[in-house]
Specification:
heterodimer, A: mainly alpha, flat, B: alpha/beta, Amidase signature (AS) enzymes, eleven-stranded mixed β-sheet, 11 strands, 13% strand
Chain lengths: 90, 481
């Protein structure tokens, strides 16, 4: 059961303010959702299963080299010594 | 002669190259069509009339000067509004991004532009792709062109409805748990979720990275192949993308082995099941073998999907702090955390629910109970499907278990809404390709067949869809609007 306090905690860690209306109706709706996914408990905890669908291919990472962006406006702001000039602070 | 705005993508390219009409004439015909039906359908969030007309003029100039115009020259494309377009507002149908204008194009958009496609504008969706009807769009819902009282499906509902209503030649959607196939089924058009990795996700605004793919929605299988070949391929900007061979159509196809998934039939409306059976009979008539199979782990698929998608969403959407983009909100006297919580109140209800569920299943104590088990199921399901694909080329069933429904029917009950995705999430969990093809109507409402294949076996999907499309002629554009 998700209590109003649980909901307030979840909202806090998610950095979301809830409206009065949401505080009222969410506990019941979230309860139903959690009840629905509770069926996953039936699954055995088998550590032998590989959880990754795609192998991580570090050898295929793109080469880490500096190149110009396609953004012409951005490229205009590159100084002679290779720095990127940002807008002035007001 | 067919009306200009009714042409299929390959007919547009042919017509332009043969000088039957100019790109500008074609674009004007589409813009007129939009003017006519948009007040009823509401597919678009942003329309770029000027951009479309100026792209058309560039193509006409290239034709006059006998320059290369590209494989999609003149084809008008509507883009789901969660795919980044340089200089064109990209809202994700959210108030959080209502003023966001990307500084770069998604890879798929670059591919389209390089091939002469004309971008018409941005299409409606459920906020951040979370929903199955477009009712969760923070702007307004899109209406089903086949019956304006009904939902068009979602989350790429704007894309499905725009293609069916002839407001664009083709469209791009994105599919996290069925978001391309659901509106394709509900609007009687063809939609494909490619294999995970076939199409670059660079520039697609993330909802659940490990599940989603960009894909085409079209009025014919041939159009779909044109689009797919242009957007597929390895991209340095997305390390999960992979190289793939181009698809050909028509292809000298072998007779394929098809299996109907029993559980998907038993869980469907009678009318829907009837249409699927008659499609499988058609497959047999054209020489395919057809059997029935069962998938053991299927009833865990939807709970796993909602666990994983919500977990990924809660992390992906943490970035929306309203600092560098967003809506006007004075910082005032708020403290650091309170400011974020306040601005994030502006998310819609469904997005909030999913972020909260995501935070819940990732919390200590629940992580092993829900998140890890969902991932485990995902691997089991994939293994089970790959084993089936050793015996069968294709697995089929209804795309949607039900017919399109009326607005408001499911909006107050999240679980009822989630259950709509029960047939489509399988392909996202397993990372396999799946297409939705129109196969009939019941009371004037469209029914779609879902065909799934092994990873990167899109050619088989296309072969079967092309053959079926030839023998069952299903209307793709309604007469009523």
């Amino acid at each position: 059961m998700i209590s109003k306090e649980d909901l307030e905690h979840l909202a806090l860690i998610s950095r979301i303010n809830l409206t009065e209306n949401e505080l009222e109706k969410f506990p019941k709706q979230l309860d139903k959702t959690i009840e629905y996914i509770d069926i996953l408990e039936e699954l055995a905890s088998d550590d032998s299963i590989n959880l990754d669908l795609q192998e991580l291919r570090f050898e295929e990472l793109r080469i880490d080299e500096i190149s110009l962006s396609d953004d012409k406006q951005l490229n205009k702001n590159i100084t002679d010594d290779g720095f990127l000039r940002g807008p002035k602070m007001k | 002669m067919t009306k200009l705005d009714d042409l299929l993508a390959y007919e547009v390219v042919e017509g332009l190259t043969e000088g039957q009409f100019t790109a500008e004439e074609y674009v004007i015909s589409i813009l007129k069509r939009i003017e006519e039906v948009e007040p009823k359908v509401h597919s678009f969030i942003t329309l770029d009339t000027e951009g479309a007309l100026s792209s058309a003029k560039i193509i006409d100039k290239k034709i006059r000067e006998k320059e290369d115009i590209g494989q999609l020259a003149g084809v008008t494309v509507g883009i789901k509004d969660n795919i980044s377009t340089q200089g064109i507002r990209t809202t994700c149908a959210s108030k959080i991004l209502e003023n966001y204008v990307p500084t770069y194009d998604a890879t798929v958009i670059r591919n389209l532009k390089e091939n002469g496609a004309i971008l018409l504008g941005k299409l409606n969706l459920d906020e951040f792709g979370m929903g199955s009807t477009t009712e969760y769009s923070r702007y307004r819902p899109t209406h089903n062109p086949w019956n304006l009282d009904y939902v068009p499906g979602g989350s790429s509902g704007g894309s499905g409805a725009a293609v069916a209503a002839g407001e664009c030649t083709v469209a791009l959607g994105s599919d996290t748990g069925g978001s391309i196939r659901c509106p394709s089924s509900f609007c009687s058009v063809v939609g494909l979720k490619p294999t995970y990795g076939r199409v670059s996700r660079s520039g697609l605004i993330s909802y659940a990275n490990s599940l989603e793919q960009i894909g085409p929605i079209c009025r014919s299988v041939k159009d779909l192949v044109m689009m797919l070949n242009i957007i597929s391929g390895k991209d340095a900007m997305d390390n999960t993308s992979m190289p793939s061979s181009p698809i050909t159509v028509p292809n000298k196809s072998n007779k394929l082995n098809v299996a109907v998934i029993r559980e998907l039939i038993t869980g469907s409306d009678q009318e829907v099941a009837k249409s699927v059976f008659s499609a499988s009979e058609k497959f047999q008539e054209i020489g395919f073998s057809c059997e029935e199979v069962s998938i053991k782990n299927l009833h865990y698929a939807l709970p796993s999907y909602y666990t994983l998608a919500s977990a990924e969403a809660s992390s992906n959407l943490a970035r929306y702090d309203n600092i560098r983009y967003g809506f006007d909100y004075p910082i005032g006297e708020y403290k650091w955390d309170t400011y974020f919580s306040n601005v994030r109140e502006n998310f819609g209800e469904e997005v909030k629910r999913r972020i909260l569920i995501g935070s819940y299943v990732l919390s200590s104590g629940y992580y092993g109970k829900y998140y890890l088990k969902a991932r485990r199921l995902r691997s089991l399901l994939r293994l089970e499907l790959l084993t089936l694909f050793k015996k069968y080329d294709l697995l089929i069933g209804p795309t949607m278990p039900i017919l399109p429904f009326k607005f408001g029917e499911k909006i107050d009950d999240p679980i009822k809404m989630y259950l709509v995705d029960v047939n489509t999430v399988i392909a996202n969990l397993a990372g396999i390709p799946a297409i939705s093809l129109p196969i009939g109507f019941s009371n004037g409402l469209p029914i779609g067949l879902q065909i799934m294949a092994a990873p990167f076996e899109e050619q088989k999907l296309i072969d079967a869809s092309y053959e079926l499309e030839k023998v069952i002629h299903i209307q793709r554009r309604p007469n009523s609007i």
